[in-house]
């Protein structure tokens, strides 16, 4: 078991001035399940491959425990990896796939068989040990890939989107299985995903990356409750947080006739006169009478347990989005969560009031969170 | 002919609701099948099968190739052939060509191809050795030369020092004067020079063939092998080779049949008598010599028939030996 430390680790790709991973400082504790999450191209897979030794490190260092591994070949790092496409050896049986590392290590046959059996039992793979990967379902292949990692008893597990090739239902199931398995084995794990739900549900801590830069690394609750900047605020949580630009005047930030008061500390931290007010869908109180931000229900999304209302408001309340691609999707709309099976109708007029504790304030210039 | 059977059966299998195909359509189908099947079969029979049959018949006669008539002599030609020492020399050389050339060529091809494609752990995972793009092209060079050109060129390469032999010249340059030989003039070396040239001429093709096979192996399998602690050799032995085995198998049969021939190179490099003391003789050259030098077409045909039988046996044996379970990627 070991800690993993990234110390200013950077990676440049040939012909590209901008680093794929930029000065990454990250400390993963012993036995921790850390999830790297971010949109595609944010450098999360590169980070993982740097740790595994499949990708070079141009600047900085990576340590496993006290051992500096920056320039060690992959085989000397004591790391096991689960690949997105599983990377099973197609010509070997499941047992041989799982035991390949042990075979290379020249472990005696009997001991090897025992270890393979043990891993297979843990993953319900015993009936399939003699099959070839081509004869397995996606979920079974995924478990073989897990087995190949587990059987080694490595210091660190690296998982590169191991669930992205499974169907939705199996993904949810396997998510829980992997998380509980990791806790049982207590092996330090770094898990890459682009799915923020996976990140939130599985990780002890979640590191959010964007354009190769670490945005925030915190527990799921920390990320959700106190996003450090606009990007994290918009990325974590589903549906996304409503981010509403507002001007600050003497009293506070004004959104659609509602004043959000700013503390003196927030005022002094503000660089300009513009803020972005963030309110999660569940942070609104719905009122039917006049007080509050007037809005009209455009779409009702019924999930049974919850209901999401997509409400349009007046133009001055344009919702900003950190992702330009999403702009078309949500201009002038505010997402509101209502209890499931509520009687809201399309076209209904409502008034929205942000709950006092549910307001996040961000500096519109820098995108950083203002102190609470 | 089975062509006739096809139509009624196809009709019987058709959906019952569909109207029965009329006689015109029926006729058209037979004509269609005939056009595509009969023409190639006739051409194949005329130009491929019938020469075999004719050769077998000629081998049972004493035809000189110049006369209009021939006498049937039964298996006399074969008896004489098996008593001829030169036949056994040629056959031995053919066996050497068939065993040594494919093994060395395929081994070198696999080695170069794996170096070019997956030889190195680069900055971004697995890649070919430095300069692999250049090698990829260079290995292909011999393939653009015809066998005749290669034979003529290497005849000069292995020529005696006085005649400007490049190989002897090179040996002299690196101070190995003692090793210079009249390579093609010595019964001990003449044939092995042909072997070397044949390998040189074919390796490039297998590098290209195996490269293509190796490129279809997903890179992450190699990365998994790296993380599993597999060395280059272990990876080659346990990952690359099993995954390109199908291609090796095809290459194996093809190369063995190519090497079985060897006529062009031996004829050009060593001449019609098969080199000094006829030591480098192969069956193809012996056949040619009997037919066009001694005008014993019957005898030559007997050699040809033996060559045919051997090639058939070898193809079947190799196919059997190299058969393995297919790997699905």
TrEMBL record, chain A:
The gene is ugpC. It comes from Actinophytocola gossypii. This is Sn-glycerol-3-phosphate ABC transporter ATP-binding protein UgpC. Residues 4-236 form the ABC transporter domain. The keyword ATP-binding applies. GO terms for molecular function: ATP binding. SUPFAM superfamilies: MOP-like, P-loop containing nucleoside triphosphate hydrolases. Pfam families: ABC_tran, OB_MalK. Transmembrane segments: none annotated. Keywords: ATP-binding, Nucleotide-binding, Transport. PROSITE patterns: ABC_TRANSPORTER_1, ABC_TRANSPORTER_2.
